[in-house]
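TICKET #2291
ISSUE: user wants both folds in one file
ATTACHMENT 1:
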Amino acid sequence: MTERRRWSSNGSSLVRYLRMNQHSTNAHTTAASRALAHSLSRYRETDCTRSVFEVVITAGPFALLWVLIWAALDAGYWVGLLLAVPAAGFLVRLFMIQHDCGHGSFFRPVSRTIGSDLSSAC
């Protein structure tokens, strides 16, 4: 009987197989989880310099595009619409930063205040 037929014909045999191999799978998963946790440990604490950098490189171009869209309305509606596409991307990024501020991932002491300000601006 092929492997596929054995698993599809009787679901309980698959459960038994998984239970028999559970110990070796758990040991491998635990080791992999520990290695992943160790490699990601440097991201547990906030970095205010990086947070300020991320806000500046996102809010700055968004504000610039916003001004350019207003200026482009005199040149034609379609020019403003073309500029609105990258502005929408920066707006989504600002929303992501605001969302992370709500969780305390940016600027630990004043994260909620900045998140509130960003959500009002967006």
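ATTACHMENT 2:
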Amino acid sequence: MYIPDIQLRIACNITRQVLLTVSLGLVALLMGCSSSGGGAPYTPRDNEYPVVSEFSITPPNNGWRAGACQIQLRATDNVAVASVVARINGPDSSGDAVPLSLTPGSGGLYQGSGTVPANSNSNGQVNTYYVTAWAQDKAGNSTPVASSLTLSVPAPDGPVPPPEW
């Protein structure tokens, strides 16, 4: 014997409806969050931002010539981290973004390598670079305050030699 479904819609607010479905003696109460009522259960929005910790850099060990520096940090989120980026800003505030990659099985350890330019100052001035990092989760929340470290590149002892080809 076939028993047809009976649906009753009761408006709770302009944007919420409760759908009461009675089918074969079973009762299900579902809440939707759309103007059309929908049947999907309410899912709260992820409002928590990722956390960046254990941020460190390994500076190039090449004197005034500088070179590659290793960037490492741990990023965690209550749902999932989508991306982690570091930026190396030079003395003139220009900079390059360095995407960091998740190390598999590391519990949220991200690593990457960025390039620090050579210091060609002939006046003995040290170049200071600021390395900042932040994380973003899948909901679009970003670390509100980027972590920041400094990195110094010494000036050459004498005139800068021409590049070696």
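RESOLUTION: both attachments delivered.
EXTRA DETAIL ON ATTACHMENT 2: The beta strands are 6-11, 17-23, 26-32, 51-58, 67-76, 81-89, 95-102, 109-116, 127-137, 147-153.
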